[in-house]
Amino acid sequence: MKSARGFTLIELLTALLVLSLLALMSYRGLGAVLDAREHVKYETDKWRRVAAFFARFERDVELAAPRPVRSAGGIAPAWLGAPVTTAEARLEFSRFASTEGVDTARRIGYRLNEKHEIELWLWPGLDVAPGALPARYPVLAGVKTFELQYLNPALAWVDAWPTAPADRPLPRAVRLRIVLVSDEEIVRIFVLQS
Questions:
Q1: Can you tell me the distance from the alpha carbon of 174 to that of 50, in angstroms, rounded to the nearest whole number?
Q2: Domain presence at residue 179
Q3: Environment class of residue 109 by beta-carbon count within 10 Å: exposed (0-12), middle (13-18) or buried (19+)?
Q4: Is residue 38 in some structural domain?
Q5: How many CB atoms lie within 10 A of CB 31?
Q6: Which residues contact 59 (CB under 8 A, 6 or more apart)?
Q7: How many domains does the chain contain in total?
């Protein structure tokens, strides 16, 4: 009688152990790839929103108008930068209509709200009727610091505008500093057409 040739139990168990280790390493590798993909997607979305906010802010600043506005409280300056965050807009200014004709000349403002969102405030027109409230739109979420400084004619950065009644209607430039809740700090400087 010939003995049947085959695998021993030890050989089968060793083969199963090797295959299970390969499967476990593949599973962990796939998990790491999926986690990295999700992280990259999140970061890409975050930076796309930040870029869209800066593009919007730059467009608004480029269209800034040196025109004071009439409001219920009298005449408001063309550019009004508050030194501290209050219930009012941190920055409020007059803006011309764009050349594409998709919007109108109006008064706009920016403010950081209590939900860590930068809000865009839009009034219906340049002159503000008594009791008229702006429409508010969140334009960037996840912001813990929103600071603005203004370049005066002496080329010094100031925290409020106007600093004196004799100041120009618009500052020379605006420095915008934001800190995201993830602790990234971004500083941009925008030159005004004045």
A1: 17
A2: yes
A3: buried
A4: no
A5: 10
A6: 98
A7: 1
The verdict on residue 47 lying in a domain is: no
Q: Is residue 80 part of a domain?
A: yes
E strands, the chain, where?
69-71, 74-76, 79-81, 91-95, 106-112, 117-122, 135-141, 143-151, 157-158, 173-180, 185-191
More confident residue, 6 or 178: 178
Question: Which helix (H) or strand (E) covers residue 24, if one does?
Answer: helix 9-62
Q: What is the pLDDT of residues 18-49, one digit of tens each?
A: 998 888 888 888 888 888 999 999 999 999 99
Does the pTM surpass 0.90? The reply is: no
Domain assignment of residue 161, given as a range: 58-191
Q: pLDDT for 141-181, tens place per residue?
A: 999 999 999 999 889 999 999 887 767 789 999 999 999 99
